[in-house]
Specification:
The chain is mainly β. The protein has one helix and 27 strands. The protein has one helix at 300-304; strands spanning 11-14, 20-24, 29-36, 39-47, 53-58, 65-69, 74-79, 86-90, 101-106, 112-117, 122-128, 133-139, 147-152, 158-163, 168-172, 189-193, 200-205, 211-216, 220-225, 239-244, 250-257, 260-265, 271-275, 281-286, 323-330, 333-338, 343-347. The strands form seven sheets. It has a four-stranded antiparallel sheet with strand order 1-2-3-4, with no helix packed on it. Strands 5-6-7-8 form a four-stranded antiparallel sheet, with no helix packed on it. The two termini are 24 Å apart.
């Protein structure tokens, strides 16, 4: 099923039950689909942004969708129970957040979200009930270039950021009115890791948040070992494993468990990395798609996941094979979207 004649899919997100998916067909719109055994049904089109939507996240419990775009705005979408229509809520951003918004993610407790952008800053946004809008506090003057990715730690206050200044950083991102039991200074820089030799594309925490994967434009994936119970400090140098590979750079990463990591990017196939005996990481190989549409695994559901483009056999130019986003379905399944207009489910 092909959604539009646009250039591809910039990002996607699943609801908590994995029965609905929101995708951006590389435009200023977001399309919400219902997924079942028979295929995909378009339920709604979210139209509020004026430029390309660059980030989507769907809170699994509260069922809110947050979107951000190059128009420097972010909206929280809530579905009305009576009509079923998705209504946007405004996010008030500071005037110095004056460049494109590039990435967004809900916190684990779904009571705030982080927004990174080209203004070299991160906005941590939370709900103000009396005005029915979302307001924000800014982490600024810590990045030297655009913030390209943000990832929350499971403790709900520690935030990892990746930037095109080649560095990965960890901040305290607690809000006094939201994180009542956390006594930290907002925006405190807890760790700065300079392992990438080029700009950082993507980040991923392991399920127990003991490791942080970093995808950079140097055709390397770096795994930073932080530890489950340790609070990072600026004066401690963490252990880091670097895996260099001959394939093109990777843009996004996803831990399947504590010992398996999958990445996607400018190479046309996902790469699988495993943690070996002794704690070292190594690339296991590429994950291949079934020859005639669908995803690896061959089930009827998996074949229908090849939503847009239908598994064409014709060779595509390099730019059309770029994979832009990866999301977890369960411990052994994940979905990948990209510039080839496909949303594909992989089974490992």
């Amino acid at each position: 099923q092909k959604v539009s004649d646009s250039s591809g899919i910039s990002c996607h997100a699943w609801n908590g039950a994995r029965t609905k998916v929101a995708i951006c067909p590389y435009t200023n719109e977001v399309h919400v689909y219902e997924a079942d055994e028979s295929g995909y049904k378009l339920l709604a089109t979210l139209k509020e942004h004026e430029q390309l939507v660059s980030g989507i996240d769907w809170s699994p419990k509260k069922d809110f969708i947050v979107t951000c775009a190059h128009d420097r705005n972010a909206y929280v979408w809530e579905q009305s129970k009576e009509e079923g229509k998705w209504e946007p809520q405004m996010t008030i951003l500071p005037s110095n957040f004056n460049r494109a918004a590039l990435c967004v993610q809900w916190s684990p407790k779904e009571n705030k979200f982080a927004l990174g952008g080209g203004s070299k800053a991160v906005a941590v946004c939370y709900y103000q009930e009396e005005n029915n809008w979302w307001i924000s506090k800014l982490i600024r003057k810590k990045h030297n270039s655009s913030v390209t990715c943000v990832k929350w730690h499971s403790n709900n206050w520690l935030l990892a950021t990746g930037s095109s200044d080649f560095k990965c950083r960890l901040f305290s991102a607690n809000i006094a009115s939201v994180d009542l039991d956390v006594q930290r200074k907002f925006g405190e820089l807890l760790m700065e890791v300079d392992v990438a030799k080029n700009w950082v594309h993507g980040l991923s925490w392991s399920p127990q948040c003991s490791s942080l994967a970093v995808c950079a434009h140097d055709s390397c994936v770096h795994v930073i070992e932080i530890g489950c119970d340790e609070i990072p400090t600026i004066d401690r140098e963490p252990k880091c494993y670097t895996m260099k590979f001959p394939q093109l750079p990777q843009c996004a990463a996803l831990f399947l468990d504590e010992e398996r990591l999958v990445t996607v990017g400018f190479h046309d196939k996902p790469l699988l990395f495993n943690k070996k005996d002794g704690g070292k990481w190594a690339m296991e190989g590429e994950l291949k798609v079934a020859e005639k549409g669908g995803a690896a695994g061959g089930s009827s559901v998996a074949k229908k996941m090849n939503m847009f483009g239908g598994g064409r056999d014709k060779a595509k130019p390099t730019y059309a094979r770029v994979k832009t986003d990866i999301k977890l379905i369960n411990q052994n399944k994940f979905s990948v979207s990209g510039m080839d207009q496909n949303l594909i489910l992989f089974k490992v």
